[in-house]
Amino acid sequence: QQQVKQSPQSLIVQKGGISIINCAYENTAFDYFPWYQQFPGKGPALLIAIRPDVSEKKEGRFTISFNKSAKQFSLHIMDSQPGDSATYFCAARSNGGFKTIFGAGTRLFVKA
Amino acid sequence: GAVVSQHPSRVICKSGTSVKIECRSLDFQATTMFWYRQFPKKSLMLMATSNEGSKATYEQGVEKDKFLINHASLTLSTLTVTSAHPEDSSFYICSAPGDSGKLFFGSGTQLSVL
């Protein structure tokens, strides 16, 4: 099921810094790429998502950059805050359906 | 946004017993729901797709007789872990698609089998 590769596995960033998480996929049928945030003991929550016809999408401090030719996409968290410390998952789904495949996850820790 | 309620949040059971986990879409209808399993510090692994009024679709390697799924109404899907054993201990999460193509997740159920 590992069709979405995510890196790094863990990330430590200073408060106010930029957190960058990268993902790559192989299946060209994927047509929707969401990012989820998960706190310990909780279910994932949708942060932001993008479709492959767009190269960038920004919502507040969160930006997705998408490179269709390279089959890569990344999440940038600007002005990272300690409250952003969580596990982040990139994901992908295809053909207009809702079956979602998750990356391995990145544990982000933002130092105060 | 849409709310998916999952119950219970935590359950401890003895080996050999069966455990039922409920997933409800509170303010929308869901003909399809998804069940995931997550081990500590690991990713979410899709177990099965729950289809209202028909049989669930299981992912490769998931035992149908071990993980029984029932989607009897447009707002409720249940996952029953039958004859649970310690290796079934895990975090189980359900999800349902809401408006605008978004997938909403329940808060998860931590199952511990002694």
Key terms:
heterodimer; A: 112 residues; mainly beta; globular; B: 114 residues; seven-stranded mixed beta sheet; 11 strands
Characterize the structure shown.
The complex is a heterodimer of chains A (112) and B (114). With 112 residues, chain A is mainly beta. Chain A is 0% helix and 58% strand. In chain A, the strands form two sheets. In chain A, strands 2, 4, 5, 9, 10 and 11 form a six-stranded mixed sheet that branches. In chain A, strands 1-3-8-7-6 form a five-stranded antiparallel sheet, with no helix packed on it. The N and C termini of chain A lie far apart (36 Å). Chain B has 114 residues and is mostly beta strands. Helix content of chain B is 0%, strand content 54%. Chain B has no helices and eleven strands. In chain B, strand 4 and strand 5 form a beta hairpin. The termini of chain B are far apart. The mean pLDDT of chain B is 94. At the A-B interface, strand 4, strand 5 and strand 10 of A face strand 5, strand 9 and strand 10 of B.
Q: Cα distance, first to last residue of chain B?
A: 37 Å
Order of helices and strands of chain B: EEEEEEEEEEE
If you average the pLDDT of chain B, what whole number results?
94
User: Count of DSSP E strands of chain A?
Assistant: 11
Low-confidence stretches of chain A: none
The succession of helices and strands of chain A, N to C, reads EEEEEEEEEEE
Give the C-alpha Rg of chain A: 13 Å
Structural class of chain B: mainly beta
Largest sheet of chain A: 6 strands, mixed
In oligomeric terms, what are we looking at?
A: heterodimer
The largest β sheet of chain B comes out as: 7 strands, mixed
Hey, which two chains have the biggest interface?
A-B, 21 and 25 residues
Q: In DSSP terms, counting alpha (H) and pi (I) runs of 4 or more, how many helices of chain A?
A: 0
